[in-house]
Write a structure and sequence with these properties.
The complex is a heterodimer of chains A (248) and B (322). With 248 residues, chain A is an alpha/beta fold. Helix content of chain A is 36%, strand content 24%. Chain A has a domain at 1-71 and 200-248: Rossmann fold (3-Layer(aba) Sandwich), CATH 3.40.50. In chain A, helix 4 crosses helix 5 (148-161). The longest helix of chain A has 17 residues, at 178-194. The chains are: A alpha/beta (248), B mainly alpha (322). The interface between A and B is medium-sized, with 38 and 31 residues. Bound molecules: adenosine-5'-triphosphate and magnesium ion.
């Protein structure tokens, strides 16, 4: 089966800092893939390279078999490749329902197609997904007034609202109340199984990613250190060393 | 405020607007200017309030409209009223086109860069118009005169400007209720997020500027005819007065709302006229102090401040709805 996302030998430098060095990875349709690595190992940079947030120095990014490494962010997003942000980004002055409405696929059309109201289906879907992430009771609150964890959940719901083929999640559990993390993981899995969204997840929490992902890539100092099943990656001596070397 | 109270307030305002030029014929021109101020504030708010792009160059579209209308009226040799109608339509369309063309370049600038970039627009246009013989250069243009045989010139322009203000208000309000309106707000709140979600931000931004320029251009055409004289720097591209007032009125009333700019324009215009009447010689100082006071005491505008004090008037439920 050909890969939904195929990253090949992507290199990205900032001045003298090599944030990604010849990184390759594949994500297959229906997968939940994990991306791990110590702080500063280049995970977010790789996301930015994939979604077109900055030009890459060399290498290739293919989505559904087509080269996307020279396209701009909104064009890539409209093809169904959506990312969430590590620092969390929502529309702070709008309420949760409005955040959801403007994330629907029909909000991505040409400006002339935007000159009409919202369909009932969009509103129904928005309610369902807010309910799905447990924010139904907050739906008329300003998104900026939500806690950081709730904003993360809202951002996740917005991403689902946009009906992506591939969703890149940058540390979805960071800042989320620990009592809610299991529920969130459960929702990630359900989004994958029930909504058919392929996921590539950056995650710091080893316990979380080992349970969630079927396939893991570990970065260190911008390079791929290990790739394989959770078991293989966890047992890889250099992964152990990279993690202990940094955080112990 | 109940619905009934709100509608009686609006109805009262409408009634006053209809009878004012008959009751106060000596103030007809100032009253007409009041509606121009409303158009100024509303159109500025499309970018400044709804989309979060502070433009200091919107006066450009007003000036282009004033000249475009007058030039067509002068050169087409049509009947006065037909010439005026054609001129106004052309003024709006040309201003919109300029906004679209400028937009693709300038709306790529973010935050302060956009604000500073637009500052130059009005100034440059004033210089160009002031040196261009085709539009009268430094001595400006005089649009064709309203037929002397006909009475009611003041009333004619009053009701035209009033109609323009109403159209601007209702069309913008309808636009803000669409997906387009929400896209403007999304760009205001986080443009990078909007791009990451696939919104066609470039198109949305240019269209917003074009809509705002359309009404400003028509307003310019009307104002040129109303005032009877188009000076390049003091009327058409009057950045230091009209250009600044647009911003102030929207902020004073409350950015990012439809009623805010209307209220801001009315309050500002009346205050300003009072300054001219009672503080002659000091009116500019008073205006300067008023501007400082607005920014210091009403950073969220009259509506924003009211909303904080009396959220129930705005039908806002502070507590969560289940
Ligand atoms: N825009 C930028 N300009 C300069 N350097 C950058 C930029 N973005 C990232 N870097 C550098 O690239 C390296 C990788 O950063 P990146 O944010 O990708 O790491 P990360 O794996 O996401 O880390 P974390 O787990 O802390 O989120 C770091 O050394 C960082 O300082
Ligand atoms: Mg990161």
């Amino acid at each position: 089966m050909s890969a939904l996302l195929k990253v090949e030998n992507v290199t990205k430098t900032f001045g003298g800092v090599v944030a990604n060095r010849s990184v390759s990875l594949e994500v297959h349709k229906g997968d939940i893939a994990g991306l791990i690595g110590p702080n500063g190992s280049g995970k977010t940079t790789l996301f930015n390279s994939i979604v077109g947030a900055h030009p890459i120095d060399s290498g290739s990014v293919r989505f559904e078999g087509k080269e996307i490494s020279r396209l701009i962010v909104p064009t890539i997003a409209r093809r169904g490749l959506i990312r969430t942000f590590q620092q969390t980004r929502i529309y702070a002055e709008m309420n949760c329902v409005e955040n959801m409405r403007i994330s629907a696929p029909d909000a991505r059309g040409s400006v002339l197609s935007l000159l009409s109201g919202f369909s009932n289906q969009v509103d129904i879907r928005a309610e369902e997904l807010l309910d799905f992430v447990g924010l139904a009771s907050k739906r008329f609150l300003r998104a900026g007034s939500l806690s950081f964890g709730q904003q993360k959940l809202l951002e996740f719901a917005m991403a689902l609202m946009s009906e992506p083929k591939l969703l890149l999640l940058d540390e979805p559990t960071a800042g989320v109340n620990p009592t809610l993390i299991n529920g969130l993981i459960d929702r990630l899995v359900r989004a994958n199984k029930e909504l058919g969204v392929t996921l590539l997840v950056i995650e710091h929490n080893m316990r979380v990613i080992m349970n969630l992902a079927e396939h893991i890539t570990c970065l260190a100092h911008g390079e791929v250190l290990a790739q394989g099943s959770p078991q293989e990656v966890r047992d890889n001596p250099s992964v152990v060393e990279a993690y202990l070397g940094v955080s112990a | 405020m109940t619905k009934a109270q709100k509608y009686s307030l609006i109805g009262g305002g409408l009634f006053l607007s209809l009878v004012a030029p008959f009751l106060l014929p000596q103030l007809a021109t100032q009253l007409t200017m009041l509606w121009l101020m409303v158009v100024f504030a509303l159109t500025w708010d499309t970018l400044g309030g709804q989309m979060g792009y502070n433009s200091f160059g919107n006066i450009l579209f007003f000036g282009i409209g004033a000249y475009a209308c007058a030039v067509l009226q002068r050169d087409l040799g049509l009947d006065y009223f037909i010439g005026l109608a054609v001129g106004l339509a052309f003024a709006g369309v040309l201003s919109s086109l300029v906004a679209i063309i400028l937009g693709f370049g300038m709306l790529g600038l973010r935050g302060h860069y956009f604000a500073i970039g637009t500052l130059g627009l009005g100034i440059a246009a004033g210089e160009i118009a002031g040196g261009w013989d085709y539009v009268g250069a430094g001595s400006g243009m005089v649009p064709p005169l309203y037929p002397t045989a006909l009475a009611g010139r003041e009333l004619f322009f009053y009701f035209l400007m009033f109609a323009l203000a109403l159209a601007t208000f209702f069309i913008l309000r309808a636009l803000y209720a669409t997906k387009f309106g929400l896209a403007l707000n999304a760009i205001r709140d986080d443009e990078d997020k909007a791009e990451a979600m696939g919104l066609q931000t470039t198109q949305v931004k240019s269209f917003a500027w074009a809509v705002s320029a359309l009404f400003l251009g028509i307003g310019g055409g009307l104002a040129g005819n109303l005032l009877g004289f188009i000076d390049p720097r003091d009327v058409a591209f009057a950045g230091a007065t009209f250009g600044v007032w647009m911003v102030l009125m929207a902020i004073l009333g409350g950015k990012g709302t439809v009623w805010g700019p209307v209220i801001g324009a009315v309050v500002f215009h009346i205050t300003q006229e009072l300054f001219w009447t009672y503080l002659l010689g000091w009116q500019r100082v008073a205006l300067g102090l008023l501007i400082v006071a607005i920014v210091v005491f009403f950073p969220n505008g009259i509506l924003g401040t009211l909303r904080e004090q009396r959220p129930e008037w705005f039908g806002e439920k502070v507590e969560e709805r289940a």
